[in-house]
Write a structure and sequence with these properties.
By secondary structure, the protein is α+β, with helices and mostly antiparallel strands. The protein has one domain (18-99). 27% of the residues lie in helices and 26% in strands. Strands 2-3-1-5-4 form a five-stranded antiparallel sheet. The protein starts with a helix and ends in a 9-residue tail after the last strand. 25% of the residues are buried. Keywords: Signal.
Length: 108
């Protein structure tokens, strides 16, 4: 029974340590050669910069009812110490905002 209690505590600690962050970006590119790169970069930054995972059904989400170029991707399980930050990128800039995000949405 003691092992079970330890398992529960470890699971709770892991759940508290992981956090969600959204990558907000403009998907418009000047040439079709770069199409898809803004989304690929968001996925790469999620996994390699903050240690999370971005599921395919939570990448390249619409973030505006009036501007189809404004997109976001939800990065689940980022490192607990991750804070909001901005990424200047050659293809486009990213605003990373951490908090609670509903499944498949750029908001709570």
């Amino acid at each position: 029974m003691q092992g079970f209690g330890t398992l529960i505590l470890a699971t709770l600690a892991a759940a508290v340590a992981a956090k969600d962050c959204a990558f907000f970006y403009n998907s418009h590119v000047d040439t079709s050669l770069y199409e898809g790169i803004p989304t690929s970069n968001a996925i790469w930054y999620c996994e390699n910069d903050i240690g999370g995972k971005m599921a395919s059904d939570e990448s390249n989400l619409s973030n505006s009812a009036t501007n189809p170029d404004l997109r976001c991707g939800i990065c689940r399980g980022a490192r607990s110490g991750t804070k909001d930050y901005d990424i200047p990128d050659k293809i486009g800039n990213y605003a990373v905002r951490c908090g609670y995000y509903a499944k498949g949405k750029c908001s709570a």
